[in-house]
Design brief:
The chain has 5 helices and no strands. The longest helix has 26 residues.
Length: 147
């Protein structure tokens, strides 16, 4: 599980850096062209996703996800987003530390894609999903927030 913890810690730290890198906080909530999600909403979505699947399902944290709010909340201040990122990093690491790695090849308890998959497969998917949306955040920042 150490490799998964290292990857998620690294990439959640990158998410934090992306949010910190916006020159103007209000640009976290702006759209450009045909892009339909703001960087702030993508950040909320990633945090909800990780807290739900890793914290709630794997770590049994009791987290209740509000996926609709992830895309509809607006103007959460940067300080709150950064605090949420730090908290999510802690939840993800502690949930994975508490997970028995011998279960990686067991079936994940939720069929997210309408088919059975292993914990290992789904954790890899979650890391890829994190990076996919982080790339979108980076692109939005460079398009909208350029000096």
């Amino acid at each position: 599980m150490e490799a998964f913890i290292e990857i998620f810690n690294r990439d959640i730290d990158k998410l934090k850096m992306e949010i910190e890198s916006f020159n103007q906080e209000e640009n976290l909530w702006k759209l450009k062209g045909q892009i339909s999600n703001t960087a702030g909403n993508l950040c909320l979505h990633l945090l909800g996703n990780l807290n739900h699947f890793i914290g709630g399902v794997i770590g049994e944290s009791g987290y209740i996800r509000d996926r609709e709010a992830e895309f509809n909340e607006k103007n959460v201040n940067r300080g709150d987003l950064l605090e949420m990122i730090v908290n999510t990093r802690t939840v993800v690491a502690s949930s994975l530390k508490g997970f028995n790695g011998e279960r990686l090849h067991d079936a994940f308890p939720i069929q997210v894609f309408g088919k059975e998959m292993t914990y290992e497969f789904f954790l890899i998917h979650l890391a890829a999903h994190l990076n996919y949306h982080m790339g979108q955040i980076n692109y939005l920042r460079r398009m909208i927030d350029a000096k």
